[in-house]
Amino acid sequence: MAAKKKTATTKLGYVEGFVLAVPTRNKAAYRKMAAGALPMFKEYGLLRLVECWQDDVPKGKWTDFFRSVKAKRNESVVFAWMEWPDKKTRNSGHKKMMADPRMSQFKDMPFDGKRMIWGGFKPIVEG
């Protein structure tokens, strides 16, 4: 009797991703802000956060990360994602974070939030 073949299932329920431009001189402030907000996000259901500072990001001919956020010469690109158990937890977590009085410590962000690109995604392949 042949063994049943296992089908791949995703471990992640929901992923939120974002790209933004941060003045390069604000790297330490950005890192401090991200690390400071992480415990609150985890309190409201976040499973994992990964914040990445540009390292090997090429300039494209038609599109690239820099153009996507209108990065200036003195800015660096941050690429990040958040892993949530599901979309409902993500939506609820954001709502709770925005109502949390501790968020007032982050009112002066070290970047221009108007140029931030973000969105929620359902995983389709995971390895």
Task: Provide tags for this entry.
globular; 3 helices; 127 residues; alpha+beta; 24% strand
Topology:
Layout: E1 14-23, H1 27-43, E2 48-53, H2 65-68, E3 75-84, H3 87-99, E4 117-121
Antiparallel strand pairs: 1-3, 1-4, 2-3
Description:
With 127 residues, this protein is of the alpha+beta class. Helix content is 27%, strand content 24%. It has helices spanning 27-43, 65-68, 87-99, and strands at residues 14-23, 48-53, 75-84, 117-121. It has a 4-stranded antiparallel sheet with strand order 2-3-1-4. The two termini are 29 Å apart. The mean pLDDT is 90.
Judging from the principal axes of the Cα atoms, what is the shape?
Answer: globular
> How many DSSP E strands?
4
- Summed up, the helix count is 3
Please outline the major beta sheet: 4 strands, antiparallel
Please identify the structural class as seen in this structure. alpha+beta
Helix content: 25-40%
Radius of gyration: 17 Å
Which residues sit in consecutive blocks of at least 5 with pLDDT less than 50?
Answer: none
- β-strand percent reads 15-25%
Mean pLDDT: 90
Lateral arrangement of strands in the main beta sheet: 2-3-1-4
User: What's the SSE pattern?
Assistant: EHEHEHE
Query: Distance between termini?
Result: 29 Å
Write a brief structural summary.
The chain has 127 residues and is of the alpha+beta class. 27% of the residues lie in helices and 24% in strands.
